[in-house]
Design a protein that fits this description.
It is a single chain. The chain has helices at about 1-35, 50-70, 85-100. By secondary structure, the protein is mainly α. The protein has a domain at about 1-35. The longest helix has about 35 residues, at about 1-35.
């Protein structure tokens, strides 16, 4: 009976540690999310609508971001061809030559 109680205590302690670690990780993720989130962007209410300079700056930023995204795109290179060793080349050529020639078997004698 003493072993059963000890086993249950170890199980409860282990499960408690696992859940405590999960709660700690959850808390750390929430804290990092709260710390690293960016502040809210200014809305149209905070920026004067008639300010032509602000509109021109916003347009210039949008164009620059679009050009930057286009400059990042590049075609992928073809992968290098596989280098075949001499041993592989010999085995493959032997297999190909065997496929080309018919296999002649000696007839079995019955009786």
């Amino acid at each position: 009976m003493n072993n059963l109680i000890l086993a249950l205590e170890i199980t409860v302690l282990g499960m408690g540690l696992v859940f405590a670690a999960l709660i700690l990780i959850w808390w750390m993720m929430a804290l990092l999310t709260r710390v690293t989130t960016e502040k809210e962007a200014p809305t149209s209410e905070t920026v004067p609508a008639n300010d032509e300079r602000a509109q021109a700056a916003a347009l210039a930023v949008a164009i620059a971001m679009a050009e930057h995204q286009l400059s990042q795109a590049h075609p992928l290179n073809d992968p290098p061809t596989a280098i075949v060793s001499a041993w592989q080349l010999g085995m493959r050529s032997r297999q190909l030559s065997q496929k080309g020639t018919p296999i002649v078997r000696n007839p079995r004698k019955i009786g």
